[in-house]
Structure of Galactose mutarotase:
Amino acid sequence: MSDSHVFSNGRYTARVAAHGAELCSLCDETGRDLVWNGAAWPRHSPVLFPIIGRLRDNHALIDGLDYTLTQHGFARDRLFRWVERSETGCILVMEDDPSSRAIFPFAFRLALHYRLDEDGLHLHYTLGNPDSLSVLHASLGAHPAFIWPLVPDAPKAGHVVEFEAPEPGHLALLEEGLIVDGDRPSPVEGRILALDDSLFDHDALIFMHPVSRSLRFHAQGGEALVFSWYGFEQLGIWMKPGSDFLCLEPWMGYASPASFEGPFEQKPGLLHLDPGECWEAGWSVRLAP
């Protein structure tokens, strides 16, 4: 079995890798790749599971035992299994095994379904708990990185994120990757976030309870990248200062509060799936005038 799958619908062509079930490329009909493929950040669209962000000291106390979980978890670095590959999509699955249980002692089944149609690329996640006795405690998030500027030679500072609805709420405050007390004033004016590298000098913008479920990322008068999501409760926006990408990240969960010292299952921002229960979410992206 090959390590990646290319699929197309004429308008878009996508490539997904078995490693991390990662979207590595999304090209329009001109061949322009909308997904980041540079060296400043070595990823494209990693899957964040079973945690999002950092734990304090990378430490999780589960059933009285200490486990080490590094930033964003392990899904992005594991090999997923192909379930289906077609001309316009694919399905990949990752399940627990002895190596995952050594660092995260829960049963799980994580499936990703990629699909292209006339409305763009759609990615649907299904997280299931196959255990007959134990609750699954976990977070799941997306981290797609899109090119910025969208149009070659356009100024980066001329781009904006235009939300579906006004976003007046304060943002979470991060220090060394952990949530700390206090709020970060929102840089959104009404529905408009004017983009600039300096926005990310203190890490990601984290909207804990965004009103919107879609946004437009575009330059003045230019074609827009329309991004929408469902099922997720948080939204992160991030870039590495000095680089040429923008990450639009719907999440179900977030980094640990710096003050949190309890057992993992009490960590804020987790899903709690009963035996046999599933949780679903997804996101879509397309180009529009």
Q: What stands out?
A: The chain has a mean pLDDT of 96. The two ends are 39 Å apart (CA to CA). The longest strand covers residues 278-288.
